[in-house]
Amino acid sequence: MTGSRCSPREEGADIDDPLVIAGVSFNSRLIMGTGGAPNLDALEKALIASGAELATVALRRVSPAARGSVLDVLDRTGCRLLPNTAGCFTARDAVTTAQLAREAFSTEWIKLEVIADERTLLPEAVELLDAAESLVDDGFSVLAYTNDDPVLALRLEAVGCAAVMPLGSPIGSGMGILNPFNLSLIVDRLSVPVILDAGVGTASDAAIAMELGCDAVLAASAVTRSREPATMAEAVRKAVEAGRLARRAGRIPRRLYAEPSTTFEDLPDLESGPHQD
Amino acid sequence: MTTIPDVVVIGGGAIGLSIAWRSAVAGLRVTVVDDHHPARASWAAAGMIAPVSEAHYGEETLLDLNLLSARRYPEWVEELEEAGGRATGYTPCGTLVVALDGDDKEQLDHLHNWQTELGLPVQRLRAKECRELEPGLTPMARAGLFVEGDHQIDNRKLVDALEAACTRRGVDFVYGSVSSLIVQGERVTGAGLASGDSIACDKVVLAAGCWSGAIDGVPPSVTDGVRPVKGQLLYITGRAGQPPLAQRNVRTMDVYVVARGDGRSVVGATVEELGFDTTVTAGGVHSLLRDAVRVLPDVAEQEMSECVAGLRPGSRDNCPLLGPGEPEGLVVATGHYRNGILLTPATGDLIAELLVTGETPPAIRPFSPTRFAGAGAAL
Prior knowledge:
heterodimer, A: 277 residues, alpha/beta, TIM Barrel, five-stranded parallel beta sheet, three-stranded parallel beta sheet, 9 helices, B: 379 residues, FAD/NAD(P)-binding domain, D-Amino Acid Oxidase, Chain A, domain 2, 2 domains, six-stranded mixed beta sheet, 19 strands, 29% helix, globular
């Protein structure tokens, strides 16, 4: 395994434990996407407010040589660049794009996306696994964007992915986590970091992901397409922290009937009224 | 040239020419230097004058300037057509923004709420009302916003008219590209050309679009603040007997179609961060046509007349860089990004005012070209 997952509920795990992906530690558990921002200035402010230390950029949509682009923004904010293969529809396409990224940015890290169609932007499972295997064999640290399918997630871990990134719902849909049960299964069964990738619509979605035990959350549209990207970035950062704390504290069991928080024995005697002189 | 001009304008696009024309009208002697770059934004633009339908969250400052310029257009164009003796194709046609499915409709209503909060004049239409306005619309249209005040101009004719008006006003034209600012002490005293010649002058206006940063002596706030953003667009033409595609500008979340009065329509535009690349790609053309046919099915019946890629001068906050720069004597007017044609009247008037009076007009103060200085060294 190239990464290690540390749930805050595991014994000995500390809430301040860093997120470790492929041997690299991050204090922030929020990863930012950079697409959809109204302008670079707004993106820069959102990145700063998010506290993110890792941000992903679609390789196909930016030239490494061009000045004044999103790459400069990452440089200024001190975010580590995570190139992604958005816009690739086949394993071959994704592998080639990843190799170009490695050359252009001198990084072995790649967020692998192989998309089935433009309307749903859902991952193409067969091509994804194929590409992941080739890239791992080629020395890449692969963070794989995948369906919320526990079986596929396990397979991706087995071929050596550094992190597995299941979707909560389709990219840009903002529908949150549609299948929390599958996400729990993935979290439970994998050893590498599990990062919720797509579907976050607002801060509470990020909190839920962390409560379910995800190691980190990636947010893009939820922040960049909001009215005030920097404010939403701050909200999502706090939600990620809150969700992680809640996961550690442990939620109470759900009940059908009420249970008073104070028992009758504990109630003060109010019947006699205030004491009179 | 026997006399030294007051002003050298670097860049003969819509912005540079409008500054030159208004400055000449105000009595300044002006020389424009331009190399007719094939990817210049004025040539590749679509000519939408649409401050309201293209308004974006967080860009309210820019919206104010955009609205100011749009309001100036009718009178300004009348004066220009008179001065240049040429038509510009300015058409007060309105713009229809169309939602094609439920998701689009949600987004449209979101936008409409915000526009209404800002007091912008926008009319929310039902699907049927959209199709009554524009019978060529797809039956799949789900809802629409009609912005009666968002118009169009033929950007290529606009540039021609500006050139003609400048020439009649005695503006000199030099064909070539400027390679450096000539600076003596702390002051700009001229422009050095790539040919080796130079032109002495009192003030230099930098209006070279996305190429503004490539000139020696230009301050880093401009070099790092302005970048090329590629846009591909198409010209399609109706054949004899075909009705026009639309009477108004039609746009969706993905594409716009600007039908000119002469049977041609412009379909645009991609937004690509690829440096100075100007390749017209199959994928770019495909996505424009796919999205255009989806909203106006008759697009498929048109003749394909031109595919073009241009380079917009993008800035970090999508706002232009306008006003005095350093060294002294340099005036900056670039970074207009997607709003160059829209901002042509306001930029011309306000920069000319700055050149004549030496005072920066209040309307352009939020757009100081020094606002990116120190904010970060490039890679």
